[in-house]
Amino acid sequence: MSDERDPNEPGNEGPNPWVKSLMIWGGIFLGLLIVVTVFGNNSQPAGEQIGYSDFRDRVAEGSVQSVQIAPDRITGTLKNNESFSTVPVATDTDLTTLLDENGVEYSGQAPEEPNVLLYILLNSLPFILILGIAFFALRQMQKGGGAGGAMGFGKSKAKLLTERHGKVTFEDVAGIDEAREELEEIVEFLKDPQRFSKLGGQIPKGALLVGSPGTGKTLLARAIAGEAGVPFFTISGSDFVEMFVGVGASRVRDMFEQAKKNAPCILFIDEIDAVGRSRGHGLGNSNDEREQTLNQLLVEMDGFEANEGIIIIAATNRPDVLDPALLRPGRFDRQVVVPVPDIDGREKILAVHMKKVPLAPDVNARTIARGTPGFSGADLANLVNEAALLAARRKKRLVAMQEFEDAKDKVMMGAERRSMVMTDDEKKMTAYHEAGHAIVAVHEEASDPIHKATIIPRGRALGMVMRLPERDNYSYHRDKMHANLAVSMGGRVAEEIIFGYDKVSSGASSDIQYATDLARNMVTKWGMSDKLGPLQYEASQEGYLGMGQTQRTMGGAETNKLIDAEIRELVEGAHKRATQLLTDHEDQLQLLAQALLEYETLTGDEIKDLLANGKIDRPDEPRGPIAVKPVQGATVPKAGKKFGGTGDAAPA
Question: Catalytic residue among 289, 386, 403, 434, which?
């Protein structure tokens, strides 16, 4: 086999360009210094070095044949042809007389010319090093800014995607058929434009992919690149924005220049909301760098100069913050919604990801899809990966249904924390808390069925009751909202009934937060208050200063008081409803809490069997009926008594 490796493959990039360049220049400088040193000092005197007094003695003895006298050195030859050198003494004025008396030939010698090149090179070394470090640091900062070089600020960072990066086709895209069909039309136009143009049709100039995170927007764009067979440039919206004013606009111009040279082609801008936010929200001067970049992008997409053959595809999960000028026809003619997949879509997505995993015969993709409502494509890919990791950890050769169920629980409820030590009192409190949620959910007709109840700490919760809808829900009715409010209060009410009002814990903090938020939305956004009517009283604020905030849009002080009173009435009504249900079915509450203390985790079917038959049928763990040991506590609190509580993560 050949040992040759592609330098473009990951892991074969070679040395860092900055280090490589520094090594080259350092080698050049070192070589020059050696050459100058070797050839610049060829006049170095040779022969034996003797003292000046010894030199005079040898002249007096008559053993010196000739000498050459220079201001800083005397060199000469003895009569036996040996050479010597010495350093003269400036105060000796009788040297020439001594030489004449002993018949020594002597001559003067001009002073040596200094090595100017070596002098300049040595003295300029610090400046050369400083300039070299500054040059390479600047080049490193701008690495990837186009064609390279220290002044490549305005060069586009768009990368040409090739098959070497991993070809993706529409066969790899599942669960989002409508979005795929709309984009397949663009691919067909690129392959056969005459079929559309002869009827007067024009290909859309741009398509905006809109969807929640993880739904497959980038995967769709890669599939278009794999199917179209034309150059495909990809860039992120954040690559345009820099600290230098004007750089983003320059990069937009350079990007479209590259695209024109490769037309017809596709230009994909990921996370376009990083550069396409609505104008006018800048702090201080609104004409900031981001808006200059957006203006240039608008002009390039649909300005005086036509960009024939350039199709722009962009992706975002925040279409609400994009500038309206960016969304008009002629720029982004189509907005393709990439939704969260339904049960059929989830089944197809699971089938795609399961191809890479050795499956056991009992794995049913339809069952897994039914139990994962609301999961995106990325969530399902993560679910399959977690199941494969679990099987490997358990040293199995195939991934069975049990691994998928455990992986689903881990993804939806968090990892188990069995190492967390809880006292018996805390376990009892958690068991009755979760049993309260479950009993209310069982007896509320509009509530979703229970999937699993556990008192094993998971994630940040000490226990959890997980409910899953029987089908995909796209809207919620008022009766279901009231049922959810009652279920959220079930844990706190169970603590009040069993342990007394003074012994309730902070475990209901997340339940109270959920109930309050739901009641607030019912009153202020969804018009479900009879006293306030079908009006919107709160709206989300966008922009740099209002991200993630809500603000009352109408009504004065009296209206605000009425809104707060309606929210309180909804939550307290749910508390009363839960109290009534748990009082009427206190025997079931005791039974389920004891079963949770004994088994720790129960499925929804096991809870149904327990409430119907008083026991749980587990063939691998044969046990008799659950022995109920009621916890003696206070009576049910009187109506009108306050409830509440705060706390960190605890029973959900």
Answer: 434
